[in-house]
């Protein structure tokens, strides 16, 4: 049995709880340590999460200590976005691979630096977008490649929204920490899915839809946008901190469409589904629509949160064995997603102006 | 038993077949006559439709003859939009009530004239938007009025698309007959639903989304748009002649959402449904979403195509009995829908400029 890939967690953010749980479920992965700026907080967090998940975490009282632990292969960073560059630089200096919480950066310049420092240090970069590691995406991709039942992609509409109390003190509403607000948080997933739907081609141009809402501090709390590709494909999305939890995906082709109503976080962690409709049409003197909706179910051996870690660990194991090079797909996809996201922000800032991307 | 309300049909358009069938199913309604510019065509059509539906139709060889039949109460007009004003004027002159196929007019000036001539003549105007007469809409309205389970309306996204062969010679692709293309045809329904969702308040402004497609003759074949209300509510829609048949509606509130995937033409004509999700949220350490999707089914005594006719006939019966005044809701809703539709067209024509509506 090969050595597990050991993960250290930088910070005690809430999201780290489910990621540490996933570390205990993922094969070939070990939850090794957690750090906070205070040892006491790190110890309390390690104990709590340990009880809930069985993870045996070393607690460090500073991020630096964790980074200098030679046993750690990968650092998972659920830090506020404004701190990412600094800590990626420090992690890369210690030759730690980096699993970064999204959004990875606030500007493309920061993103360039983050990716360059990882590449130069020979460490793998990945952002923690879980959905893309879910085998459902491969099953949907196969369905959309059917010329007969789906045809050509014309449009992808997605939405992701939940209610974040605006006075909760959540970092996602603090312009000093996560200035991209709902766009950086939930919008990240919509844009990622849109690029995925278009085979990771970049759109030619993007426009923020009118109707953006912001907090009193100027952080975006709701926004929609339209992305247009050079060949005429279109994607739209809506993301918000103000609406009831909801997450729709609707992929429209010339011969059929595909729908799933749990874009980002599956209804169940052991199984998820999508619905296809192939060659639908009017029947019965045009008063009914042929109902060919078909659900395809995809079973998950481990939750998608664990699949990210397994995919990451497989790359790290390959690197450690000297068998594999850095996997450039992950930094590329992350970069493209941020590029489009910032173009949407730019469009909003410029009064819903059209922003050229390619 | 009261006299039935008698309908005459101006023209032998394909859509008239299902409307005449609906006349045979609607209570208090009689399919009385059909006319074409050629008697032979009208006779052949009357015979064909009679065989299929049991309707016993008088065939007239000119529209004028039909309009002068004193037995006819209502004229149903499935004519190309460019002919509407002329024939509404002639029908009103004969004191015939008018059920008009959509889009009712190509300009607001035409629309004003159509509505004025009907009002002045004391005849009822209604456009043949069937969905709104479906009792499902009342059931959804009740669901969205639940403060606890739905909350406040934030957004409504709809889409309606089907594949219309671009060289089919269909009037909806002929700029001389139906210059509003997919926007006038399928877009009409999306905009109507959007206004319905917002309790018939007019939006403050509309913007066509980038990515509109047109035929070689310049008729819109695909378009999306964003509508914004003064209080921040947003609606978006996508309509197309280029995609597989599909019709989505997604109404988002602060505490829940409502979804139906047969916006305009129900899957079945005797029953239709919608799905509500109330107070959805993350569960199980944030790795699953609470699945509270609930389907509500609404049974239909007669198909929605017949319900329009019954609603119309009830107004006409009331007018004939001298008990009721003209019902102003129908011309108002039709006018508002066209007003928004033309604002979207204007936005597209002006390079996706924002167009003020109110």
UniProtKB/TrEMBL annotation, chains A, B:
It comes from the Eukaryota. GO terms for molecular function: nucleotide binding. Pfam families: GFO_IDH_MocA (PF01408), GFO_IDH_MocA_C3 (PF22725). InterPro entries: Gfo/Idh/MocA-like_OxRdtase_N (IPR000683), GFO_IDH_MocA-like_dom (IPR055170), NAD(P)-bd_dom_sf (IPR036291). Coiled coil: none annotated. Residues 5-126 form the Gfo/Idh/MocA-like oxidoreductase N-terminal domain. Residues 148-258 form the GFO/IDH/MocA-like oxidoreductase domain. Belongs to the Gfo/Idh/MocA family. This is Uncharacterized protein. It comes from Klebsormidium nitens (Green alga).
